[in-house]
Recover the amino acids of this structure.
């Protein structure tokens, strides 16, 4: 082998070992250039190894959500459905708290007056009499000074002394009171709903006079009561029961009346008692006994009349006893010396049919006449000094019972 051949072989070996020619980064030729004679050596250089495709494509995990094309509508962002369906939480019905009904609260205001005689006695002349005033002024004149009080309450209860009758069956007694049946318009025109008749003048004109009076009241829609004839008035869905008796016949009708009215579902039961001594300020022992006896029986309020003047009040076992409210619209005397009068008013609260024990009451001072010189038969509210004077007067009477009204005439609750 000559030198040229040996050199060519050496170059081929170097190239074979390095796998490429230095410097140019190109793939070397698979054929060596010919040097000298035509004999040459072929050197096989292994090609650069290309990545071989695997015999099988790798598996792609399956997904449960379909692949969707993105939205191509202009102005919208591509939306991609979630790759997995949303998990649905189990639904439970919300817990409903039981509904507690609101308590039914009803307030009922009752107003009570003193003696009312719509007419005059047999000894009166026509001049300056109740009848003359009625003929000149009409029925709405008499109670116009207190009408607003009566219109704003729920029941107005008067003590009706005397008959509304044309009967001439006058009984043999010192004073007999009666008025024309049309005088009932005095009551209907001024929101008077109840007339108590358990008194010593109901039979002034015999049974015929009493029967006609009841007929007149019934036709006018006025409720009445006396003795064992008890009154029930339903106000705002609440029944109010009233018993009217004289205080000289014991407590039989008081007991029986109370039981009857409670059995009829009356939530409020009132006793109106005719008792005491005419024109005597002091409350007598019979009044004290019977008033407290009525409360012990269960009555919610006791209102007395007959003395023709004001007497004291007391709180007994958390309930009121008014011993006398004096005269009010009183045609039985043309000019009484004592014209002080008043309205007793109490508001009862009933919750779900049960009467509450609180006492919300007041005494409203009045005069039985709008003038001091005579009786014009028009009871009138008083104000200022006269108001204060009558409240002080009442508290003087109340002191014996350790009871007092405040400066506005309201009952001071027991502590």
């Amino acid at each position: 082998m000559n030198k040229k051949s040996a050199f060519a072989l050496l170059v081929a070996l170097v190239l074979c070992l390095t796998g490429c020619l230095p410097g140019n980064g190109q793939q070397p030729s698979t054929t060596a250039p010919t040097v000298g004679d035509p004999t040459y050596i072929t050197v096989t250089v292994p090609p650069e190894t290309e990545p071989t495709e695997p015999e099988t494509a790798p598996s792609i995990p399956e997904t449960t959500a379909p692949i969707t094309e993105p939205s191509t509508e202009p102005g919208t962002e591509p939306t991609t459905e979630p790759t997995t369906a949303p998990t649905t939480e189990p639904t439970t019905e919300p817990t409903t708290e039981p509904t507690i009904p609101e308590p039914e609260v009803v307030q009922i205001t009752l107003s009570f007056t003193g003696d009312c005689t719509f007419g005059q006695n047999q000894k009166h002349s026509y001049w300056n009499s109740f009848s003359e005033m009625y003929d000149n002024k009409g029925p709405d004149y008499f109670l116009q000074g207190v009408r607003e009080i009566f219109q704003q309450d729920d029941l107005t209860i008067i003590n009706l002394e005397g008959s509304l009758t044309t009967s001439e069956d006058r009984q043999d007694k010192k004073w007999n009171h009666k008025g024309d049946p049309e005088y009932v318009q005095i009551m209907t025109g001024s929101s008077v709903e109840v007339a108590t008749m358990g008194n010593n003048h109901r039979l002034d004109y015999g049974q015929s006079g009493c029967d006609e009076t009841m007929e007149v009241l019934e036709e006018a829609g006025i409720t009445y009561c006396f003795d064992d004839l008890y009154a029930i008035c339903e106000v705002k869905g609440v029944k109010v029961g009233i018993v009217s008796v004289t205080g000289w016949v014991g407590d039989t009708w008081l007991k029986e009346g109370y039981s009857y009215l409670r059995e009829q579902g009356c939530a409020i039961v009132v006793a109106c008692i005719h008792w005491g001594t005419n024109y005597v300020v002091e409350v007598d022992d019979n009044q004290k006994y019977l008033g407290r006896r009525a409360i012990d029986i269960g009555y919610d309020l006791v209102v007395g009349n007959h003395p023709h003047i004001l007497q004291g009040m007391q709180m007994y076992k958390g309930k009121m006893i008014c011993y006398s409210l004096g005269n009010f619209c009183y045609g039985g005397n043309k000019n009484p010396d004592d014209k002080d009068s008043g309205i007793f008013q109490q508001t009862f609260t009933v919750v779900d049919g049960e009467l509450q024990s609180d006492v919300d009451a007041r005494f409203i001072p009045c005069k039985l006449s709008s003038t001091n010189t005579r009786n014009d038969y028009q009871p009138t509210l008083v104000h200022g000094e006269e108001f204060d004077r009558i409240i002080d007067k009442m508290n003087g009477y109340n002191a014996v019972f350790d009871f007092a009204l405040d400066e506005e005439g309201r009952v001071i609750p027991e502590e």
Observations:
- The two ends are 145 Å apart (CA to CA).
